[in-house]
Amino acid sequence: xxxxxxxxxIRVHGARVNNLNDVSVEIPKRRLTVFTGVSGSGKSSLVFxxxxxxxxxxxxxxxxxxxxxxxxxxxxxxxDVLDGLTTAIIVDQERMGADPRSTVGTATDANAMLRILxxxxxxxHIGSPQAFSFNVASISGAGAVTMERGxxxxxERREFSITGGMCPRCEGRGNVSDFDLTQLYDDSKSLREGxxxxxxxxxxxxxxxxxxxxxxxDPDKPIRKYTKKELHDLLHKEATRIKVDGVNVTYxxxxxxxxxxxxxxxxxxxxxxxxxxVDRAITFxxxxxxxxxxxxxxxxxxxxxxxxxxxxxxxxxxxxxxxxSGLDEPSVKxxxxxxxxxxxxxxxxxxxxxxxxxxxGTLSGGEAQRTKMIRHLGSSLTDVTYxxxxxxxxxxxxxxxxxxxxxLRLRDKGNTVLVVEHKPETIAIADHVVDLxxxxxxxxxxxxxxxxxxxxxxxxTVTGKHFDDRASLKPEVRQSTGALEIRxxxxxxxxxxxxxxxxxxxxxxxxxAGSGKSSLIHGSIPASEDVVSIDxxxxxxxxxxxxxxxxxxxxxxxxxxxKANGVKPALFSANSEGxxxxxxxxxxxxxxxxxxxxxxxxxxxxxxxxxxASVLEYRFGGRDIxxxxxxxxxxxxEFFGSGEARTPAAHKILERMDQVGLGYLRLGQPxxTLSGGExxxxxxxxxMGGKGGVYVLDEPTTGLHLADVEQLLDLLDRLVDSGxxxxxxxxxxxxxxxxxxxxDLxxxxxxxxxxxxxxxxxADLVKSSKTLTAKHLADYVGx
Length: 783
Prior knowledge:
Mean pLDDT: 87
Shape: globular
Strand order of the largest sheet: 5-14-15-3-16-17
Number of strands: 27
Distance between the termini: 52 Å
Radius of gyration: 30 Å
């Protein structure tokens, strides 16, 4: 054996990232290895935080210091030995950027190729590829430029023009926003009478004093009697320096001021009353000039075989692939070949139902992950490590087989494939399995099993015991107490769907990926007072955010500490007055070393406790605030449940967190360290205390281990038994089998879907065995 062939293992020794307890594993190269274990057991910490992270860091170090300055700096993971690494390509679940300018086409280079194609073959010819880009504005100008030639200054006249494809009206966004003026002011009142109805714009506050004392407006005249100039000054006047009550201030019209102070912020980050105002006051309508295509008239006028670029981007990708296959032009043969391959990859990976103009931010986690896979499918690279994070998320059992084939194909080309996964169908195809656990959080972080799939089945681990779990159909189902009527639903691919969603029961909406499930539920049942919608969008939070701040648990805790010690609550916040002055409440001090790793050292002043020393002297129930934040949810539930530390408001929130299976989480753990499944369950715990009577859950089994699915089903039962209606969009057969009522959409995806193909009980669905879902559910329950 040649010495170069002896490096056939990735060796990890002494990994301690997040909750890993000195983990040591040896992973075979050029094989498919699946990492399993309950949610929070340390799978992502080992695969992403250790192996993939170190591989990326070492590749970055091969670039020049100049280039490294533009790259994210990655810290070396806390591990003793990492040996045998190869280049890692990470395909994670991170949502794609929700920028309105980002679409499926721009995210996958398909648009770039289409633009070149139209610039070469489109008639009439209108310009270079950027003439078809909705992100490039048309611009032209002329003027004199002065330059030095041979020691003398010369003036020359220069002209330039750029032809872009951006629609000038909506600036390439596809829709235009408009202000509903009736929500900004009551035109029957004058300013002095309090005409402005914008939150915070009271007449006795600064904004009121500025508008009344500006001199541009008559404070005693009702707004409906304003002249055109006065109305323009109230709504649109540009920033102007004026003096009010002897103070220099800036006067600005209401609309530019609202755009800067409110609309520039992320909607999720707004305070609830501001968000409610923005939702009322701003209306979004399709741009009347480009009809939502984002493109200028010139870009839409150029056609190939009667199709313009807007029509091509609007087509379902499977249809577009067919259209591109019909083009035969030798001058652009290499381009057509590459474009055909990209579009065929979409179809092959099960995303043929999308269109290139679909905004990237609207893709689900599973769709985003598969979109990222596309560029790797035809790659000639071998001996690469591909790292996947639950690639079966959002996939119907029918589609999982296709995903398995792709993973095996990548392996068979000579690559190492590492997959973090919970679905038994994917674990079953593994060459090697690493099972982490035994529990989650501090109870996990150890390797419980290493070996092949039959060995896992026979093992005594949590995964081994639950590997062949199968939920059975319920002997009796609950009867509905009413129905949500959906009539004529046409959003996205829905075909005039009429359906009654039963209330007072557990109703599951299912169907293949892209059949129209989310369009039906999220499009027809908007979140309102009575509807609590818990989707898969990420939790926004910095490393200062933690489960205690996110769930609102910290408020009753701070108040309890303040009351017991006779001081103000702000002292018990590490982001406010109680923060350690040296590290500003972060607990660590970050030293930026330019191109080198940023070094984080524990703050010596507070020893990582984040609080001022004087704050830690205040106690409640015999504990200081830093000790309480170090509790797990289960410990805190016990602490605040009885005795002198009894705090009902805090105990209620902790109880809900425990019910969703997060009893192991530490209250002060940064949100950035939580896995996808943990984040969704944290959202569920937060919303469970809401007043809503209808709960809409979008794939709540995401990131859940086989053993945790049972706990989720118990939780859903408890919600229904307490009088709530639960609607779940789900592919997991255990949830389908447990439902009281199933609505199955299909029969296919995209324009082959959008119909209700079955309504009824799970038992009736299994008997019918006509739809794809029926066949897979029948196999699952052994019918």
